[in-house]
Amino acid sequence: MSLIKLESLTKIYDIGGNKFSALNGVDFELQCGELIAVVGMSGSGKSTLMNIIGFLDRATTGSYFFSGYNVSHLPEEKLAELRNTKIGFVFQSFFLLPRANVVQNVMLPLFYRGVPLLQAKEIAMQMLERVGMRYLANHRPNQLSGGQQQRVAIARALVGNPEVILADEPTGALDSKTGDEVMELFTDLNRNEKRTIIIITHDKEISHRCQRTVTIKDGKLYP
Ligand SMILES: Nc1ncnc2c1ncn2[C@@H]1O[C@H](COP(=O)(O)OP(=O)(O)OP(=O)(O)O)[C@@H](O)[C@H]1O
Ligand SMILES: [Mg+2]
């Protein structure tokens, strides 16, 4: 069974009465343990697709199956629950909380799930160890380089043990060497821990390091 299956998915944005079709019938299947790149030019619909896959938004028409369940018409609370438990997000601009230190940032998803603080801290420290950032646990995000911040964001994405990591242009704000190191971490997490990872990028270098690449163009997906 596929972890993710999309059938004839469309997304139509309504901008002041004008309709804009950002996804035009997307079919897609993803198995557990895959590392896949979604590539496409700016405006092609990558983030729109990622937001739907990550339960941040809904499709206009079509079906979305997650672990075999049709999640297309779930109420908002259920979507939020799936978002919080099944998906780990990594974004181009890290989105770390500036006033919290590194370990507090990583603990956050566990905090929302009601995990006791001491236990949450222990798990967060393990994740920081995993991404090589444990030694910076008490630093603030603004004391870290971009690559270090992205590693912390990846630790935060991993901490709740999600079924899939969704990374939207995770290397977009990094220089190429740092971006390479972050990609190395993703490939390592996939290879050695069988993490399922979707990386959205418009960088061909990044996609070449994934097992599979799909291309999105004008809201349509091509294998
Ligand atoms: N909330 C919205 N309301 C209206 N139109 C939107 C909205 N979000 C995206 N769009 C439009 O949908 C299209 C796809 O946008 P999307 O953000 O998915 O592109 P993208 O492939 O992620 O681009 P980029 O590489 O620049 O991040 C664009 O034409 C965009 O203007
Ligand atoms: Mg985008």
Structure notes:
This protein is α/β, with parallel strands linked by helices and 223 residues long. It has a single domain, classed as Rossmann fold, CATH 3.40.50. 35% of the residues lie in helices and 28% in strands. The protein has helices at 46-53, 76-86, 102-112, 117-130, 146-158, 176-193, 204-207, and strands spanning 4-15, 18-30, 35-39, 61-66, 69-70, 87-91, 164-168, 197-201, 212-217, 220-222. The protein has a six-stranded mixed sheet, sandwiched between helices. It has a four-stranded antiparallel sheet with strand order 2-1-4-5, covered by helices on one side. The two termini are 19 Å apart. The relative contact order is 0.21. The model has no long low-confidence stretch (mean pLDDT 94). Bound molecules: adenosine-5'-triphosphate and magnesium ion. Adenosine-5'-triphosphate binds next to β1, β2 and α1.
CATH fold-level assignment: Rossmann fold
CA distance, first residue to last residue: 19 Å
Which architecture name does CATH use? 3-Layer(aba) Sandwich
Which band does the percent of strand residues land in? 25-35%
CATH class: Alpha Beta
Number of strands: 10
Low-confidence residue ranges? none
Order of helices and strands: EEEHEEHEHHHEHEHEE
Rg: 17 Å
Q: List the ions, cofactors and other small molecules found in this model.
A: adenosine-5'-triphosphate, magnesium ion
CATH homology-level superfamily:
P-loop containing nucleotide triphosphate hydrolases
Q: Look at the structure and give the mean pLDDT.
A: 94
User: How many distinct helices?
Assistant: 7
Overall number of structural domains = 1
How are the strands ordered across the major sheet? 6-7-8-3-9-10
